[in-house]
TrEMBL record:
Organism encoding this protein: Cereibacter ovatus
Keyword Transferase listed: yes
Family annotation (InterPro entries): RNA_pol_sigma_54 (IPR000394), RNA_pol_sigma_54_core-bd (IPR007046), RNA_pol_sigma_54_DNA-bd (IPR007634), RpoN_core-bd_sf (IPR038709)
Listed GO MF terms: DNA binding; DNA-binding transcription activator activity; nucleotidyltransferase activity; sigma factor activity
Name of this chain's protein: RNA polymerase sigma-54 factor
Length: 446
């Protein structure tokens, strides 16, 4: 019987395939597309710190503001001027409470424990952790912790360090001298008030409707979030990256040159290096020139996308949300000859100043809804705006149901189902018709 021998051979095979290699430069170019001007300046500044042939050049002075018509929805076009006029917001909640604790005359041990309570204070002024947990962290027993909390709750404004809504309102009512037994009974039954069950609240409190209405009028004058008095200063608006204005021949969009950085390639700095650094100089100069081209490409792409958006949304620019047209990323990409992902990146983080206010560029992209004639002339944004208008104009005693809203909008030409109305209403944080009727009942009773 013969034996078989296994033989091994080395062999080579050749095949062709296509693949996309994402280099470091390509990754940076992709990131540049979605950077607003402020982030772009920081990025170029970082490149200039490590590359002697890159120089960041910012505008010497802000460019003149483009004159845009004032609109009710506008947050203010001269964002930098408004920021300069912002009033001093005063001390923060943390600074205020720290100063007040120092005036309470606490012992060193009590002051240290009060620091634990202060750390647990929420921005709206309530205590954000259970009292027994804070007592354990502070080395206090329950009685000592409650005594310290009582002293902290005397800090102005009244309502700070409350553990819940009822306690917050009770502290304020006591401070104003209106904490009657009936007022306390209402606070003990806040769930009934939240559901607008006024008759049930009367039964629970053992009072008549007129007496209850008097208490509710006082209750509405209290502040459920006293801490927000310190942190309510509006955050400064980020400057826009694109500015839309109306010219004699139509709408015009420009880059915001007042915040737009420029890359300057310092090729003359190469003479500072000797022949031994020739490789280093060539490599760094190549990177500097690529960066300048990438930033210019980013600016041109941003301008193309912005111009196409403006071309398609002239109705919105002139008349507001009611004239917002449906528009997709693919439509804009096909119109300017780029990939859909490029448009998505450009619009993800940029802001555009329009006569209707400064808005995210992404907000102009909205789905289409079918009209009665079968086309897609209605946009989701315009329909949401119309829903808000209908709700604002309804009779509070007989609010519109989702079916009624759907029929009203469908009669105007855009086919709309009841479930679509419900979805958009929830997106707008508009309660249901039943909840709106209850809210009107409570508001009307005071």
């Amino acid at each position: 019987m013969g034996t078989r021998r296994m033989q091994l051979y080395n062999a080579q095979s050749f095949a062709q395939r296509q693949s996309l290699v994402v280099t470091a430069q390509l990754q940076q170019a992709i990131c540049l597309l979605q950077m607003p001007n402020s982030e772009l300046s920081s990025f170029i500044e970082g490149q200039a710190e490590e590359n002697p042939f890159v120089e960041l050049r910012l505008p010497a002075a802000p460019a003149p503001s483009v004159a845009l018509p004032r609109a009710a929805a506008a947050a203010g076009d001269d964002w930098d001027r408004i920021a300069g006029l912002a009033a001093d917001p005063g001390p923060s909640l943390y600074v205020h409470v720290t100063a007040e604790i120092a005036r309470l005359g606490l012992t060193p041990a009590e002051t240290a424990a009060a620091g634990q309570f202060l750390d647990a204070l929420e921005p709206w002024g309530w205590l954000g952790q259970p009292l027994d947990l804070l007592a354990a962290r502070s080395g206090l027993d329950q009685t000592q912790a409650e005594a310290l909390l009582t002293r902290l709750q005397k800090i102005e404004p009244a309502g700070l360090f409350a553990r819940n809504l009822a306690e917050c309102l009770r502290l304020q009512a006591a401070d104003l001298g209106i904490l009657t037994p009936l007022f306390q009974a209402v606070l003990d039954n806040l769930p009934l008030l939240a559901s607008a069950d006024l008759r049930g609240l009367c039964r629970a409190c053992g009072c008549g409707m007129d007496d209850l209405k008097a208490v509710l009028r006082q209750l509405r004058g209290l502040n459920p979030k006293p801490g927000m008095l310190f942190d309510a200063a509006p955050s400064p608006q980020r400057p826009p990256d694109l500015i839309v204005s109306r010219a004699a021949d139509g709408w015009r969009v420009d880059l915001n040159r007042s915040t737009l950085p420029t890359v300057v390639v310092r090729a003359d700095a190469a003479q500072d290096y000797g022949q031994t650094a020739r490789v280093y100089v060539g490599e760094r100069l190549s990177v500097a020139r690529w960066l300048a081209r990438a930033v210019e490409h980013r600016n041109q792409t941003t301008l193309k996308v912005g111009a196409e958006v403006v071309r398609r949304q002239t109705g919105f620019l002139a008349e507001g949300l009611a004239r917002m047209q449906p528009m997709t990323l693919r439509e804009v990409a096909d119109a300017i000859g780029v990939h859909e992902s490029t448009v998505s990146r450009v619009t993800s983080g940029l802001m555009i100043a329009t006569p209707q206010g400064t808005l995210p560029l992404k907000s102009f992209f909205t789905a289409a809804l079918s009209s009665r004639e079968g086309d897609t002339s209605g946009s989701a944004a315009a329909v949401r705006h119309r829903i808000r208008q209908l709700v604002q104009g309804e009779n509070p005693e007989d609010p519109l149901s989702d079916d009624a809203i759907a029929k009203a909008i469908s009669d105007e030409g855009v086919t709309l189902a009841r479930r679509t109305v419900a979805k958009y209403r929830e997106q707008l944080n508009i309660p249901s018709s039943v909840q709106r009727r209850r809210q009107a009942l409570v508001a009307g009773s005071v």
